[in-house]
Amino acid sequence: MLNQKIKGLNIPDDTSELIHELQVHQIELEMQNDELRKSQLKVQTSQDKYFELYNFAPTSYFTLGENELIKDVNLAAVTLLGVEKTNLINTAFISFIAPESRHKFFKLIKSVKDNKDRQKCELNLVKNKKPIPVIAGINYLPDEIGGFKSLLITVADITDIKKAEIKLKETLENLEDQVKERTKELLLANNYNRNLIETSLDPLVTIGQDGTITDVNVATEKVTGYRREELIGTDFADYFTNPQDAKDGYQQVFQKGVVKDYPLDIKNKDGSLTPVLYNASVYKDEIGEVIGVFAAARDITEQKKAEKKLMEYWESLEEQVKQRTEELAKSNADLKEFAYIASHDLREPLRMITIFLQLLERRYGDQLDDDAHEFIGFAVDGAKRLDKMIMDLLEYSSVVNQELIFNDTNLEEVLNEVILNLNVVINENNAIITYENLPVMRADENLMILLFQNLISNSIKYRSNKNPEIIVSAFKEGDHHVFHVKDNGIGIDPKQLDHIFTIFKRLHTHNEYEGSGIGLSIVHRIVHQHGGEIWVESEPEKGSTFKFTIKN
Asked: Nearest-5° angle of CA 52, CA 54, CA 58?
């Protein structure tokens, strides 16, 4: 530049060196100016960055000068206090501090200025007359020579933290109350459980993994004769007549998790023995690891005595049964003998009476008046009925004493046989016999025929004015077959239902219906011989339904 200015001038040669020096100096000055401009640019850039960091930081910044007047604030501080920046500048910072926090703030300010260090504390600022809990950091900013320049106050709003602390405190207090209540419940439960254990009549023992006793109840002390303090820490197997059996049972608990009704004998200190059934299971710690066994022993002394008495009773009963069987065998033999006598010796005189009465009537009939003929008729009828009763009694006796022969019996074939046997009386009465769902089952076929024959003939005999209709059905129920024999006859008075199976029990006179009243007794006997029960449901003029079961 200087060279351009002096170009064209006539300068003496001795000044050329001076001009050269001036040019060099000019260049140096220009270079220094460039460096100065760069340095200024850096300073400006640094200031701009500081301004951005200061002004847009999320933390509230307050710069205080002399007498703690606010010199500058950032946007976060304006937002925190809700006051415009222009209204904050040159305002005493103390005016935004809650009265209860001001003394603490003054003490910290003095400490920071005296020690030129940094302090930190909790304060309450005021916004719209409401306190704002904050954490304030007070920083000492010196000037170029180390003297006081300003204070930088950093403020963090801890309202949410305080709310969280309050909520946490409430939660902790509530938790403490719950812990206290739960502890109380656990103590009560522990006392309750301990009382249950101690009041148990059964010996209860906890056993560790090494087989030593860890706890017992009073019943264990009584059955062993040792105090609790003496039992704890000793080998549990030592208190049984066969320690190895006890150890084997203990190992089974660990293998299976539980043992039920394991027989052992506890030996008492005085030498007496107590038979027990042990029931045991493992117990675990809070992480599920097996740490021992809980065992309960049930004293079965009385059970053993009862078993002994029962065995003696059974032996006595077997003897009684044997004796009774012999008596029944003799009774059956006598009954068979009676049946023989009844069928021969008793019926023979009756036949003689009937024959001679009829002969008397034929030979001297013209000499007898009407009363005599009537009396002879009564006598002959009575003899015939007596003979029928003897025959029915013989039939009942044969059912009672008959040896049962069980085979697979088709009940439909049985019904067909019965219908064939009763063909005459069925046709005479225009009776309709139907059946459905009749099974094949184990039974005595002959007795089944006799059973259904008696029931069906009974239904036809006690018919109403309508043609007899009889329905036989069956269904399976458990281990029995249930049979129904339903008719549309005259029915039965419910008051008489409990008596109709009694032998020789008749609900009608001989003039109304013939018969000895033994048919239903035979039915009742056959059902019982097949392991079943029989009953009847009926109402007068509404028919009857005989129901019975036969064991399958």
From this structure: 100
Please give the Cα distance from 529 to 450 (Å, whole number). Answer: 13
* E runs forming strands in 423-465: 432-436, 440-443
Closest CA to 220 of 210, 208, 230, 228: 228
Can you spell out the DSSP letters for 53-113?
HHHH-SSEEEEE-GGGBEEEE-HHHHHHHT--HHHHTTSBGGGGB-HHHHHHHHHHHHHHH
Q: Are 402 and 447 in contact (CB under 8 A)?
A: yes
Phi-psi region of 478 (alpha: psi -120 to 50; beta: other; left: phi over 0): left
Using DSSP's 3-state secondary structure scheme, residue 143 falls into coil
Cβ density class 255-264: b for 16+ within 10 Å, e for less: eeeebeebeb
Query: How would you write the pLDDT of the chain (552 residues) with one tens digit per residue?
Result: 444 444 444 445 555 565 556 656 556 555 655 555 555 445 444 444 545 667 777 788 899 988 889 999 888 888 888 899 899 899 999 889 999 989 988 888 888 888 888 888 888 999 888 898 998 889 888 877 767 788 888 888 888 888 888 888 888 888 888 888 887 776 776 666 566 566 677 888 888 888 898 888 888 888 899 998 999 999 988 999 998 988 888 888 888 888 888 889 999 989 899 898 888 888 888 788 888 888 888 888 888 888 888 888 888 887 787 777 676 666 566 566 666 665 556 666 767 777 877 887 788 778 878 788 788 777 776 667 666 666 666 665 665 556 677 889 999 999 999 899 888 889 999 999 999 889 999 998 888 888 898 899 888 888 888 899 999 999 998 889 999 999 998 887 777 666 677 654 544 444 444 544 577 888 888 888 888 998 888 888 888 899 999 987
CA distances from 137 to 65, 102, 224, 238 (A): 16, 15, 76, 75
Q: What is the residue type of 5?
A: K
**How far, in Å, CA of 272 to CA of 283, rounded?**
31
Which has the closest alpha carbon to 155: 66, 87, 70? 70
Residue 118 structure tokens: 């940094």
The answer to whether residues 80 and 157 touch, using CB atoms and an 8 Å cutoff, is: yes
Spatial CB neighbours of 390, under 8 Å, sequence gap ≥ 6: 342, 343, 346, 347, 350
For CA atoms 32, 37, 38, 40, give the dihedral sign.
positive
Packing angle, helices 519-529 and 445-461, rounded to 10: 150
Contacts of 183 (CB under 8 A, 6+ apart): none
Residue recorded with tokens 């204070």: 151
Among candidates 498, 487, 477, 495, which has minimal Cα distance to 550? Answer: 477
